[in-house]
Design brief:
Blueprint: E1 2-10, E2 13-19, E3 24-29, H1 35-45, E4 61-69, H2 74-82, E5 91-99, E6 105-108, E7 111-113, H3 115-123, E8 126-129, H4 140-151, H5 154-183, H6 185-201, H7 207-219, H8 221-237, H9 242-248, H10 250-259, H11 265-290, H12 295-315, H13 319-385, E9 392-404, E10 407-416, E11 424-425, H14 426-429, H15 432-446, E12 454-457, H16 466-480, E13 484-488, H17 492-496, E14 500-509, E15 512-520, H18 523-532, H19 540-552
Parallel strand pairs: 3-13, 3-14, 8-12, 12-13
Antiparallel strand pairs: 1-2, 1-4, 4-5, 5-6, 6-7, 9-10, 10-11, 14-15
Helix pairs in contact: 4-13, 5-13, 6-13, 7-12, 8-11, 9-11, 12-13, 13-15, 15-16, 18-19
């Protein structure tokens, strides 16, 4: 609830403080006194575009400040907490400052905030009805909110929103998978080629050295055969072989040992040497037999070495590096190709969720259509009562190509204010005063479900009077039992029904015009109502009429 509004140096307003309470507050005064300026200042505070022209002549800055009791508004408290705004004892003080030169600034409980946050907070606390640019009723999204509130469709709307979010999440992930697939298509081909090339080679750890050794032996096979055969003959084969010559040493060594038994270890050394030479001879024979003079095999080894060399040069410094590169390429390729399976899963899930969204949206459409019929029937009769004789109100739907986060249709309010004319969009049919009264009719119907605590009506009495004025006053009073209502009016019928009556008048400060406000009670209120009745405020007839209005009130 709005508890206090303070305006400084705004247009012709010098310094004005307006205290507000619950129920209906009427703001009256002569034309030009500045009543609408107060609403303008409030709209500026709540996010209206600022201009240096708003600053009072001769001043450097204009300031608008409002104190709200938000203790019963958990969503506002939560938003303040999210924005780092401390709220003590349920009080939220919004302030906006417009400088003649320089940037404009805004505060919430003393903390600097953006104008957009001020607008967001203000939109949940105050609803302005008057000039077209301030009218929430003209926005289709607000029309949809009003219909859903009347139809009690909040749960259905939430279900559609949840289903749409789930579908959007799956679609986003699927698109990410598709994007990755497109971006990695060329890489996948390269990885596949790389993995298959390395796997086809069937490399083994240490293979390069083994091949190099085999190639050397094959390239020098004739020389190796000749050398190994000659060595074998020298060691083991002919009559003058090393083995035979060592064997001939046994007889003289035994003679030596017979004379000097202490030289016995030399016999063991001879035996050991002879055994080693004999083993060398046998090994030379085996080696000679393994030497293979095979040009075809040499060609195959050279070809294999060329393949290994090419792969090592292409993929790593060693054969082991190449083998690891092949394993890594295969693993990455498997991961990339696994996205196809994930995409199929997501597409299946997408079909399921699209079906769920369609069902939820169809249920919401049914609730809305039923609510629209009831809203049409509830609002249309009120139009004549509020001075729009022959008026017809309709809720129209326009189907979307596919369900969105708020359902399968857009909602638009249509109205006809003249008999025989088809209903059309509000912004093309209704004037400012008619729009205010249309909103009043809607608020009358929706009074208990609407969450906006403070309603401000300007121009609501444009073009009406007599009995219609009484009915408008009754509707305002009825709405004010559930909301704080602030109305600017020229009609005494409305002012008389107010719980609080404030008069706006123009005076002067330092030779310059200045708007003032005065809370009226008793005879002062009688005098103001008499003036509004069009008579002499001092006239007994006008004052009796004013008392009668208050008596009715």
């Amino acid at each position: 609830m709005l508890r206090e509004l303070r305006v400084q140096n705004y247009a012709v307003i010098d310094d004005l403080t307006l205290e507000l309470g619950p129920g209906l507050t009427a703001l009256t005064g002569e034309t030009g006194a500045g009543k609408s300026l107060i609403v303008g200042a409030l709209s500026l505070l709540l996010g209206e575009r600022a201009s240096s022209d708003d600053v009072r002549s001769g001043e450097e800055r204009a300031r608008v400040e409002a104190a709200f009791d938000v203790s019963g508004r958990p969503e506002v408290l939560e938003r303040c907490s999210d924005a780092g705004i401390e709220v003590e004892d349920g009080w939220l003080i919004l302030r906006r400052e417009v400088q003649r030169e320089g940037r404009n600034r805004a505060w919430a409980n003393g903390s600097p905030v953006t104008a957009s946050l001020i607008w967001e907070l203000g939109a949940s606390l105050v609803e302005l009805h008057g000039q077209h640019e301030h009218q929430r009723l003209l926005r289709r999204v607000e029309q949809r909110h009003l219909l859903d509130a009347f139809a009690r469709a909040e749960d259905a709307v939430a279900a559609v929103g949840e289903a749409h979010r789930a579908l959007s999440d799956v679609r986003s992930e699927a698109e990410e998978v598709r994007t990755r697939a497109r971006e990695t298509a060329e890489r996948a081909e390269w990885l596949r080629f790389k993995a298959e090339e390395i796997e086809k080679a069937r490399l083994e750890d240490g293979e390069e050295e083994v091949l190099r050794g085999e190639a050397r032996r094959l390239e020098h096979s004739e020389e190796l055969l000749e050398l190994s055969a000659g060595l074998h003959e020298a060691v083991y084969g002919d009559e003058a072989s090393v083995v035979d010559r060592l064997g001939e040493l046994r007889r003289p060594l035994r003679e030596l040992l017979r004379i000097d038994p202490d030289a016995a270890p030399m016999e063991e050394l001879l035996d050991s040497g002879l055994a080693s030479v004999e083993e060398l001879g046998r090994e030379l024979a085996r080696y000679r037999d393994t030497v293979d003079h095979d040009p075809a095999r040499l060609e195959r080894v050279r070809s294999r070495l060329d393949l290994v060399f090419r792969l090592v040069r292409k993929y790593g410094e060693t054969v082991e590096d190449v083998i690891e590169q092949g394993r890594a390429a295969r693993a990455e390729l498997d991961a990339l190709e696994g996205s196809d399976e994930r995409l199929r899963e997501l597409e299946g899930r997408e079909r399921e969720l699209a079906g769920e969204l369609g069902r939820r949206a169809a249920e919401l459409t049914e609730v809305r259509r039923e609510g629209a019929t009831g809203l049409d029937e509830a609002v249309s009769p009120l139009l004549a009562e509020l001075g729009m004789e022959g008026g017809v109100f309709r809720v129209a739907f326009e189907a979307r190509e596919e369900p969105g986060p708020t359902g399968s249709e857009t909602v638009e309010f249509l109205v006809s204010l003249n008999p025989g004319f088809e209903p059309g969009p509000l912004d093309r049919i209704a004037s400012g005063g008619e729009l205010s009264r249309l909103m009043l009719a809607l608020k009358t119907v929706l009074v208990r479900g609407d969450r906006i605590p403070t309603l401000v009506f300007d121009e609501i009495d444009a073009g009406i009077g007599g009995e219609v004025a009484h009915r408008v006053a009754e509707r305002l009073a009825a709405v004010a039992r559930e909301h704080q209502v602030f109305v600017i009016t020229h009609l005494p019928q409305i002012a008389a029904r107010a719980d609080a009556h404030v008069r706006v008048e123009k005076g002067s400060v330092a030779g310059k015009a200045a708007t003032r406000v005065q809370r009226l009670a008793g005879e002062e209120r009688i005098e103001e109502l008499a003036r509004m009745l069009g008579g002499d405020p001092e006239s007994g007839v006008a004052r009796r009429h004013a008392r009668e209005l208050l008596g009715v009130a």
